[in-house]
Amino acid sequence: MKFDEAYSGNVFIKSHPNFEESEAVIYGMPMDWTVSFRPGSRFGPARIREVSLGLEEYSPYIDRHLEEVKYFDAGDIPLPFGNPQRSLDMIKEYVTSLLEKGKFPIGLGGEHLVSLPIFKAMVEKYPDMAVIHIDAHADLREDYEGEPLSHSTPIRKACDLLGAENVYSFGIRSGTQEEFEFAKKSGMHMSKFDVAEPLKKVLPELAGRKVYITIDIDVLDPAHAPGTGTAEAGGITSKELLEAITAISNSEVQIIGCDLVEVAPAYDHSEQTQIAASKFVREMLLGWVKKQPK
């Protein structure tokens, strides 16, 4: 796959025209092959880019401008429709290539299973890494109706891959009884319902560590983000998620990459979900793209 040339479609606002000169690379993972409720997140990456054109380029949250970060929008990986395993293999191959070139990867989903191959690529380069997971759902199932490749399984697989003690979940308010029991017994960190305040308490213990961050847009209450495949009542506000992103930006954590997943534009004609997602990506760019650790 070759994604180091200018993308022919819409790009995220202020995308740099040169891959080689960029510190970070935005790439899309348009996959929703394993969803258990409403499909459509494969259209999320493209629409997040399109609505980003309405953003201000300056962030008052961390006092930075998008001109201060060089990032290249590589477009979407051309994933084969309906083929989960091949799609995951292609994502891992692409992220591995970005890491080899010293780029900071910013992924746009797509369903949450797309984070699994990213974890696999990341741990090969950073074996002592941790994961911060912000989501409404535990995603700790071993399988869904007998299928291990499911959007409900990536965090359980992350626990197996990294060690459960290196996985930190926030905002969780949905899952099976077995998933919550696993969280208690495994040694992973799980904060139910809230994000910003429990995250702020944990960040000092992650200081100096290399951390990958995955955000599922459904951590927001459906009142703030109806455009997602598995909406879950009782969530946080956009303001609270921005507070969490800013807290991470101001911490001593060494962020090595991130993704934002599960935006499904068809279910939000007001576009508040897509607009919020693009703002979160702006803040992730400005707060998290720093000199890469070796």
UniProtKB/TrEMBL annotation:
What molecular functions are annotated in GO for this chain?
A: agmatinase activity
Record-listed E.C. numbers: 3.5.3.11
Q: What is the lineage of its organism?
A: Bacteria, Bacillati, Bacillota, Bacilli, Bacillales
Protein name, per record = Agmatinase
Gene it is expressed from: speB
Q: Which UniProt keywords apply?
A: Hydrolase, Metal-binding
Matches recorded under SUPFAM superfamilies: Arginase/deacetylase (SSF52768)
Q: What family classification does the UniProt entry report for this protein? A: Belongs to the arginase family. Agmatinase subfamily.
Identify which top EC class this enzyme belongs to.
hydrolase
